[in-house]
Amino acid sequence: MFTRHVSRQLAPLIDGELAPKKARQVESHATECARCQAERKQVSFGMEILERLPLVEAPDAIWMSIEAALREQRSRTTWTVRWRRVAFAASVVLALAAGAYWSAARQSGMRWEVVRLDGAAGHIGAGEWIETDSRSSATVKVGQIGSVEVAPNTRLRVVTARPREHRLALARGEIRAKISAPPKLFFVDTASGTAVDLGCEYTLHTDEDGLGLLRVTKGWVSFQWKGLESLVPAGASCRTQPHVGPGIPYFDDAPESMKQALESFGYSALNIILAEARPRDTLTLWHLLFRVEVEDRTRVYDRMVSLTPVPAGVSREQALKLDPETLRRWKDELAWTW
Length: 338
What we know:
By secondary structure, the protein is an alpha+beta fold.
């Protein structure tokens, strides 16, 4: 029987890699030891998450980078060892993060902690409101996955407070969210759509009608409204409008003339956007493909092609037809420049 904890044996046990005798010993210890039993659940959850991750084809940019790295290495063997170490470390970090989130989610209650500017603390649950005036603010601890800073003159409601769904409704004002959790667990509803967290930090401002601005500082946010979606990466912003939903995302360092043209967005504005676009502004152009008239789609496509090479598997015909798989493949490749 083991006299110490069996943390290092749990993953091999779950994978069936231990010899029968040792497997029985580890199993017996984990059954009697509360700590090892909890760790086993965490490891199982993490491994389950890894198994559910979809297999995707790596972008061409990945292989070009690898080939370049190979040329720079003195020894193929040395590089391979390093690469395996990096890949192994990344898988361990992901498994630990998933396991830690599972543990935290299990412990989280139905009420979240709120700390106001004056230091007063309390708790809030589903259906309850937080309202600040011009001289007050607050910080909400969103379960165990992050926090939301509530700015002055803001009205915010907790819609759902569950381990697998954390949802707020921003009636007016501004919040700053900092979330560290698997994607699509944190949502903020507004009058013009919903901000869906993809692992990020962002600021969201809106008035009561839904006119507002989403600005992402880390990670990605998907803003959705009635089937329309804008994907906003770090360093980019997206305006929101009532009865329209998310606008076209743009990088904050984009030319001012381009950002002003996006505000009006007519035929003459499209000329300015296409002329001013830089390679990373394919973020904006990719979203424009869905928003422009059919006759203008070709102009947008041609400008994108002039800025970045078209990856394998992306055909002009399918892109102009807005084929979902074609545009997804193109977006995944372009994202390396975003």
